[in-house]
């Protein structure tokens, strides 16, 4: 068991830290959460800076440990999040890199890395969320095109995306997990309607996407027809590996800020609150260790994350909610004021036990796939 | 960074598990429950021979020359096996109290307001004047209460957390085994989502406790140790309760071993000032 880093890794950390200290003060102000075009421009601009400095493909080509250091340092320095580039960099990009043809890789990957194109994710549907295999958006073949009709939901960045990684049903008679195909759909194609969805946090975080006879060239299919489920699972396992590294670092920073705020407003003298914050500090220290452990497993296993991802997601998503509940106790009555820090974070933390597989789905995965309990119904 | 067990550490873990399977199997466990207060000196000496107490002593001093991470693995196995006796105190006394390293001398120590195995031990560290015997909730650990209080030793807290981790892992296995085989309504109860989710939570708590304990053993940092104890106490205590729940009515009997795990987990959770002290330590670190 070793928690130290190699000389090369420490060197990477030092160079990154130096670069961040130099470029972060030159960044423009962050756009407001509802300014979608502004957010697109800001996020793409950040990606372009990373590209020019040689950090663009850290999510794809670097070792898991290097990626861990990248996420740790960027978060610690207060660098922008991956934002609108999330799907392109962490999802569609790796999928195309692993499963696409040489031509597809040449067409789609460089613009993602250079910060020129935004992708969105067309997976979930109103009746197919956690049960993704129940998706119903259908595509029929017509010459060199697929003709797609149906609707998608919870699609982040749909309003400003250039491309959508779209899962469609190409064989309605096949078993649920078969008969699904992965397509790259241009978002400016005729027949696409995007309707923003307002979340309980008040902002339009994502959208509903309606597809009415949208023509997508067959050449945009990644992987074989009806093989989209397997293609998708390849990327989902990668996504879960280090997706939350930056967030754990951020939560630990928030905890220190909460301690400072509590000392300033006198609530620190309340032993119940103080111990609660102490316990959360223990929790997030442990979550950081679990992250390091999972990254080490991924490193040893050739980059593929193990079952630790579900274990981590279950614990982290609840811990994050407890963190912002504790923040409300630190704030007192101010926790009802949307203009105060942490109040919006508390609202958005409610999505963590739902998104990317609810806690209930994750527990079933752990019980059946990790512990080997007999399959339930 | 290679935060994984090395091959040597895996071999050590497997070796200790084999030794304890052989020297302290279920029959021995139940015999010990039937003879409360009696410490098995032969077992203690064979632990000494296996290097249990001398593990961290340098080789020139007759020790094994290993470190805290290896000691954590050892105590995890002791926790799994529900091994009785003042193991932590004797381990920490090796090299300081003659005979402790070899298992010839049984050493206990005052911890907070409690002292375990006071009458069976050869050497007691700490002030025991005015000690009063308690009717211990754990049939495998005699307890005395002492006036005054001794501060927590961080290493004792860490090794206790490792024992708790072992208990957490063991009760998770017991729950899963039972859920696989016990049938109700015509099928294994492990097919029921409510039972599946209890078992999943058992594993999640165990795995986060594991990385916290192992990391604390590597860094030996006070806050890491405090975090490890909080997570390990939770994993052991809640784990044993959930395991008992999965066992249903049978879990509430003296014959099932689940209660022994739960009672030991409660007892260990009281060591080193209890969780409150660890929470305060972490809070102080946050505010620093």
TrEMBL record, chain A:
GO annotations of cellular component type: plasma membrane
InterPro entries: Acyl-CoA_Oxase/DH_mid-dom, Acyl-CoA_Oxase/DH_mid-dom_sf, AcylCo_DH-like_C, AcylCo_DH/oxidase_C, AcylCoA_DH/ox_N, AcylCoA_DH/ox_N_sf, AcylCoA_DH/oxidase_NM_dom_sf, Mycobact_Acyl-CoA_DH
Full protein name: Acyl-CoA dehydrogenase
Xref: Gene3D superfamilies: Acyl-CoA dehydrogenase/oxidase, N-terminal domain (1.10.540.10), Butyryl-CoA Dehydrogenase, subunit A, domain 2 (2.40.110.10), Butyryl-CoA Dehydrogenase, subunit A, domain 3 (1.20.140.10)
Residues annotated as domain Acyl-CoA oxidase/dehydrogenase middle: 120-213
SUPFAM superfamilies named in the record: Acyl-CoA dehydrogenase C-terminal domain-like, Acyl-CoA dehydrogenase NM domain-like
Ranges of residues in domain Acyl-CoA dehydrogenase/oxidase C-terminal: 226-371
UniProt organism field: Streptomyces broussonetiae
Record-level Gene Ontology MF annotations: flavin adenine dinucleotide binding; oxidoreductase activity, acting on the CH-CH group of donors
The UniProt record lists the keyword Flavoprotein: yes
Occurrences of domain Acyl-CoA dehydrogenase/oxidase N-terminal (ranges): 7-116
Cofactor(s) required for function per UniProt: FAD
Entry annotated with the keyword Iron: no
Annotated family: Belongs to the acyl-CoA dehydrogenase family.
Keywords: FAD, Flavoprotein, Oxidoreductase
TrEMBL record, chain B:
One Pfam family in the UniProt entry: Acyl-CoA_dh_1
Xref: PANTHER family: ACYL-COA DEHYDROGENASE, ACYL-COA DEHYDROGENASE FADE28
This protein's UniProt keywords: FAD, Flavoprotein, Oxidoreductase
Name of this protein: Acyl-CoA dehydrogenase
Family that this chain belongs to: Belongs to the acyl-CoA dehydrogenase family.
Organism annotation: Streptomyces broussonetiae
Keyword Glycoprotein annotated: no
Residues in Acyl-CoA dehydrogenase/oxidase N-terminal domain copies: 6-91
Sample GO molecular function, one term: flavin adenine dinucleotide binding
Cofactors (names): FAD
Domain Acyl-CoA dehydrogenase/oxidase C-terminal as annotated: residue spans: 159-276
